[in-house]
Design brief:
Length: 195
């Protein structure tokens, strides 16, 4: 009986000893990502290429119902891994996508991917092909655009299967510089091994 009690106390104190370390590591990861965003990314989020592309798409997608959005997302998913990709290619050919590709290339491997979403959570432009077109059902959109201006949401740490690098996604609300109103969001994959 005493041995069981001792083992329980030992396990409980071991768990407490490790809890602050993981919380500290998580806080450090989030702080590093936010610092990178504030020093390397936020400056170009107000670029007219970004703002104008989101506003233009918001005009086109504001009247879409859930069925239309679901249909577009299914269409995208079917093309994302297919050899014939007219919808995917149209989005990748946009000026905003080219802008994001240039920013990714200039980061020298620090940024692994980027995509901008509109007020409905639909992709406006991207540096790489995403697995889906609608992000509105995911935290990257729900924890940014849906919350308001000035929000940065940093997701957990994951290992990229192709590069084996540790990475995290940071998502940021994008607001209209003229009004301060949220118009969309951006998600940026960050290579933590280079951070």
């Amino acid at each position: 009986m005493k041995m069981k009690h001792f083992a329980s106390v030992l396990l409980a104190s071991s768990a407490l000893a490790f809890a602050p370390v993981s919380a500290t590591a998580e806080a450090a990861h989030v702080a590093q990502v936010k610092h990178f965003i504030s020093t390397s990314v936020e400056g170009w989020l107000n670029d007219p290429i970004v703002i104008d592309a989101i506003k233009e798409q918001n005009t086109r997608t504001s009247g879409l119902d859930d069925a239309a959005i679901d249909k577009m997302d299914k269409h995208w998913r079917a093309q994302a891994t297919a050899s014939n990709q007219p919808f995917v290619e149209e989005v990748l050919a946009r000026d905003l996508s080219k802008f994001l590709m240039d920013k990714k290339d200039a980061s020298q491997g620090m940024i692994t991917e980027m995509f901008v979403m509109d007020a409905r959570g639909l992709n406006v432009g991207q540096s790489d092909v995403t697995s889906d077109y609608w992000q509105g059902d995911e935290a990257k959109w729900q924890q940014t655009f849906s919350v308001g201006s000035g929000v940065i949401f940093v997701d957990g740490v994951e290992k990229d299967e192709s590069s084996q690098a540790l990475q995290s996604q940071a998502s940021i609300t994008i607001s209209d510089p003229a009004t301060g109103e949220p118009i969309g969001a951006i998600t940026i994959g960050i290579n933590l091994d280079q951070l």
